[in-house]
Specification:
By secondary structure, the protein is α+β, with helices and mostly antiparallel strands. It is built from three helices and six strands. The strands form two sheets. A four-stranded antiparallel beta sheet has the order 2-5-1-6, covered by helices on one side. Strands 3-4 form a two-stranded antiparallel ribbon.
Amino acid sequence: MKLIVAIIRPEKLEDVQKALNEHEVYLMTVTDVRGCGRQRGFTEVYRGTEYEIRLVPKIKLEIAVNDAFVEATIEAIVHAARLGDTGQIGDGKIFILPLDDCIRIRTGERGTLAIGP
């Protein structure tokens, strides 16, 4: 089992969800987050005053999958979250973490059964 954590652009969330659904990955947690990477923020003008925005709004996806779904999940996220054919700075990152155990609270199922197919 793996926990896949993906940081993506907010406007790409629907595309990523659609791509994941096509690969039979439906379960995820979505969080609004802020962060900075190579983008290093941007400058915005509000009511005539210039502001530097250093922490850029992003979406964080947390997806627990069985080993058989790891590569399909990663490919779906990469292709759906990328801007254009080659991508751009700020498209995001994907982290793959080992998942020791998972427990479904309702039934008490553990491990791969708690995650699903």
